[in-house]
Amino acid sequence: MKLAILSRNGKLYSTRRLVEAARQRGHSVRVLDPLRCYMRIGSQGFALRYKGQSLAGYGAVIPRIGASITRYGNAVLHQFELMGCHTPNPSRAIAAARDKLRCHQLLAAQGIDMPVTVFGDNPDDTDDLLALLGEPPHVIKLTEGSQGRGVMLTEKPSASRSVVDALRGLYATFLMQEFIAEAGGSDIRCLVVGDEVVAAMRRQAPEGDFRANLHRGGSAEAVVLSAADAAVAVRAAKVLGLGVAGVDLVPSARGPLVLEVNASPGLEGIECSTGVDIAGRIIDFVTAEAAGAGMQSRKRVRRARAMKTEPCV
Ligand SMILES: Nc1ncnc2c1ncn2[C@@H]1O[C@H](COP(=O)(O)OP(=O)(O)OP(=O)(O)O)[C@@H](O)[C@H]1O
Ligand SMILES: [Mg+2]
Ligand SMILES: [Mg+2]
Q: Deepest of 24, 61, 149, 158, by most Cβ within 10 A of its Cβ?
């Protein structure tokens, strides 16, 4: 199958591993920088081009779109989708996952448990908002942060208030959460591919921090998930519509809580700590889904033809 990986840098570990796994399995694969993809859109048809050439004939596209280019990268991915190309993570799902607020709303609506979360815009409402949240410590997060950046812990109401004031002054969008102290600075990253958690690692924050992210100096070890934890992770990915996702769980007194669902989870830390060929699992999943899309894919081709575009399949 002819595969495309949307990634800004072919040298990144996750991109390299996906290319390697695809080639090992006999697929042809090309890394496309989403910022070099450009489009002509019109009601009579589409054109999607890359460095002067038409992009066509791809059986599936695997998005690895960084947080800094979510909007443009998603527009490119959407174009592939409109042209009938299969993707495990559709642009709509990526947009929902990138926005922690929207992600929490969607998960909560399906009864998936998470830390109590509040958000509000007007400074006049801050006291009531903090009352809704309950006693500190509080975790305050930028809605579009990643790698633990923009995740803060406040121990007193006055600290929460001043962080909120500062963020409002910067026109940042954020949310506030109850701090799950029982987690003890650890979380569990579950790598979901389709209906399965293919690998999981427990991450532990370094001394003096509460954030377990490896980018913040956390350490990781492979962990065997309980069936209940695995089911929560798979459900969370499904609620968002992601075929491939990194779901962060924190253990709590009331059971596993979903912290967030990542649409482009890094593979390096989790492949190295678990030894699982996650890239291979992703390629197998994506190509099987793309090939097995059968009727659906034929329908997409017909629709694409009706719109005078070059179908990707
Ligand atoms: N409510 C909370 N209670 C306790 N710890 C938390 C809470 N929220 C976040 N943390 C800790 O902070 C870390 C970073 O938070 P979160 O996963 O929401 O941010 P992120 O920047 O999107 O991270 P990622 O790199 O995984 O995308 C978590 O892995 C967890 O260790
Ligand atoms: Mg995240
Ligand atoms: Mg996280």
A: 61
CA 68 to chain centre: 13
Tell me how far apart the alpha carbons of residues 301 and 313 are, in angstroms, rounded to a whole number. Answer: 7
Read off the pLDDT band of 310 (50, 70, 90).
low
Helix (H, G, I), strand (E, B) or coil at 135: coil
pTM of the model: 0.90
**58 CB less than 6 Å from ligand 1?**
no
**Domain layout of the chain by residue ranges:** 2-89+282-306, 96-113+182-263, 117-179
Place of tokens 């500062």: 166
* Segment 7-26, tens digit of pLDDT: 999 999 999 999 999 999 99
Tokens encoding 312: 């990707």
Quick one: which of 212, 196, 203, 290 has its CA closest to 245? Answer: 196
CATH classification of 2-89+282-306, choosing from 3.40.1360.10, 3.90.320.10, 1.10.730.10, 3.40.50.20?
Answer: 3.40.50.20
- If you measure from the C-alpha of residue 208 to the centroid of ligand 1, how many angstroms do you get, rounded to a whole number? 15
Task: Check if 264 has its Cβ closer than 6 Å to any atom of ligand 1.
Answer: no
Phi first, then psi: give them for residue 78, nearest 5 degrees.
-60, -35
Q: 260 CB less than 6 Å from ligand 1?
A: yes
Report helix, strand or coil for 304. Answer: helix
Q: Which helix (H) or strand (E) holds 200?
A: strand 196-204
> In angstroms, what is the span from residue 77 Cα to ligand 2's centroid?
20
Sign of CA dihedral 16, 21, 26, 32: negative
